[in-house]
Amino acid sequence: MTSISKKSQADSKHSLAIICSSFKNKADYSLTKEQADYIAHDIKTHDKKFVCINTLSRFVCVIIVDEKKNHYTSLESLRKHGATLTDSINTEKRAAVSIVNELSNSDYSLALAEGMALANYQFIKHKPSAKKNANTLSTIHVVDTKATTDQLSNLSIAIDATLKARDLVNEPVNVLNASDLADAFKAMGKQAGFKVEVFNKAKIKQLKMGGLLAVNQGSVDPPTFSVMEYKPKNAKNKKPYVLVGKGVVYDTGGLSLKPTPNSMDLMKCDMAGAAAVGCTMYAIAKAKLNVHVIALVPSTDNRPGFNAFAPGDIITMMDGSTVEMLNSDAEGRMILADALHYAKRYNPEMAIELSTLTGAAAAAVGQYGIVSMGTATDEQKTKLTVSGLRMHERLAEFPFWDEYDELLKSDIADQKNLGGPYGGAITAGKFLVKYTDYPYMHFDIAGPAFVTGKDSYRGKGGTGYGVRLLFDFFSNL
């Protein structure tokens, strides 16, 4: 991972990024008059906000920020500029960069460093031929008197956790099955200091988790149910927050085999919700936040083999209710329902569930945000929304009207697992809320969790979406 540290001044041998409201030729930047004049001319003549020159010995970039503009928009712009600068530094095989912030708010230097470090990510562990082209950027120095050591430490932790989530999402199922995912959580628990208990298939049967067991019927690999807990002595909350993540490590659609061409190619990413909540636990514990949090991850793959559950089957869930299963590709809600019912024993302050649940959510907002809905209080929703804006992992709240309940009614069971052709993202959330009796938010991350083309600092492949949002939310409680 890229090292981020605070320095009192920029190193003249390092590449340089200057954040300012207007560019001035200062001797302490070690620029020649010609270099400074070129930058100033480009900014003034072409009204550029981002000017970068290669002086042969280093890159020098000037980023103009208007502090009167929307703060969150400016932060996202800086992250994207950071990604551009990282690409240039790695192309030229350079190792270090100094960020100098002339502005009054440390958020700007932190955002630029964040964009650079996240953009520096590579997933090449299975590609020996790519090792010679590994990224060279290793060090980011932040020259900003306003930035505190704690801020830089928490930034590094959030980045580390996000990259861990990307690694998990990018792993194929022949490397990461349900047991491997649980083992990864155990390893993170040991590293960061939170408890991890993993239920095996026998325990899952004992608990009568019918949804998880039904989805697992077509697989040769057993399911797992991971329970993670971080509880510091000085926790601010009397009742725990509960995170729930969908852990379908690979999804064929089951007997309702995915019909769309190439749609299974990316289905290793169907456990991105699980990765997000597990890696959020890692970040919370690593940062020693004063908050009691529990995370639950039901995990299996979904295949059409063996005694795979079939459309028309009646499944008895953990809470004793029945579900008429009409489409085995709507499997995520089946395993999450058992986890949400299990969460009742904790009487949570609020539960937040993350899942790559519906194509309808991806169709609605694309890769640009999270479809959200739920029964949390207005105050809780507001805090989550602000964290989403700050991290640019934005929430698009959908309605949760009672009329959608009608679409899930079954003639022969308590409800169906499919709501029909319209409002698919909402009926999925409506299915799940029936298994809760506490404030609850459903985050459908199907759009942004995995991208097929490079998306600035989010890269290509697994994005780690949700980790930064949740870590910011818990950090600011």
Describe the structure.
By secondary structure, the chain is α/β, with parallel strands linked by helices. It has helices at about 35-45, 70-90, 105-120, 150-170, 180-190, 200-205, 210-215, 270-285, 330-340, 360-365, 380-390, 425-435, 465-475; strands at about 5, 15-20, 50-55, 60-65, 95-100, 140-145, 195-200, 225-230, 240-245, 245-250, 295-300, 315, 320-325, 350-355, 370-375, 395, 415, 440-445, 450, 460. It folds into two domains: about 5-145, Leucine Aminopeptidase, subunit E, domain 1 (3-Layer(aba) Sandwich), CATH 3.40.220; about 160-475, 3-Layer(aba) Sandwich (Aminopeptidase). Strands 7, 8, 9, 10, 11, 14, 15, 16 and 18 form a nine-stranded mixed beta sheet that branches. A six-stranded mixed beta sheet has the order 1-6-5-2-4-3, with helices on both faces. A hairpin with a 5-residue loop joins strand 12 (about 315) and strand 13. Helix 5 runs parallel beside helix 8 (about 270-285).
